[in-house]
Sequence to fold (148 residues):
Amino acid sequence: MQFMRFAMVGILNTLIDFGALNGLLWLDGYPVGWRLFVYNALAFTLASGNSYLMNKRWTFGDSRPTSLAKLGLFFCLTLVGLLINCTVVYLLTFSGWSPLAVSTVVWINLAKVAATLASLIWNFCSYRWWVFRPRPQVPPRHVVSVAK
Fold:
């Protein structure tokens, strides 16, 4: 159930990520290279903010107050996901080459799909194990009375 919720939040985050990326690219004429890298980083960061808010409460049921340490940990781990994501997009598009029958716009978005899948695994595992780790269950204390 938890992974399904994570996937639903992920779909929303992906829409935010792709929407912001394509909006920025459209405004700038669909560049490749370092500008694509920067636009991808901005879009990913926007989606990550939404990810934190939705995953904290809904996916992982973490009702504890947000500490600066937890927020910092989330964004440090997200930075690794960002580097994975941007590296995949950059490597697939840096030369400006795309397959013959595919436009640059389609190729950038296909590269973004591959990057999203690559960073998905890292994000789920790191959030689950380190950021939103459930509290350990403390067994209830049993009072044993000794009859005299």
